[in-house]
Design brief:
Elements: H1 13-19, H2 23-32, H3 48-54, H4 64-76, H5 79-89
Helix pairs in contact: 1-2, 1-3, 2-4
Length: about 110
């Protein structure tokens, strides 16, 4: 389908919505289209949630829309958190490019 299509960087429609912090589009893709591509990594091995966390388009990381989008992404693919925890524990056993989650920056709640 069109929703499964990727650009030359391996980004799906959900990756692009996350990059642009298009919260309504993220919700539409997750709710109406059953979390299409939520677990798909792009060419940089980033999940859509990784893209949203790093997006410069997010103006307020304390907003309800941002928080809801993160929650929806985690709910649609809870393995994201589980995978990062496992990867952090295995850090000493592999190279960093094998586990992109180990470079996740910890944020305090309410910090931008």
């Amino acid at each position: 389908t069109t929703l499964d299509a990727v650009d030359r960087e391996g980004n799906t429609a959900l990756h692009c919505a996350c990059l642009g912090a298009e919260f309504d589009t993220i919700a539409l893709l997750l709710d109406k289209y059953d979390a299409v591509s939520v677990s798909k990594r792009n060419a940089q091995k980033k999940l859509p949630i990784d893209i949203l966390w790093d997006s410069n388009a997010v103006q307020n990381r304390e907003s309800v829309k941002y928080t809801e989008s993160i929650f929806h992404l985690l709910k649609a693919y809870p393995e994201t958190v589980m995978s990062c925890n496992v990867n952090l524990n295995m850090k000493h056993q592999a190279k960093s490019e094998d586990f992109p989650c180990q470079n996740v920056k910890k944020r305090k709640l309410g910090a931008a």
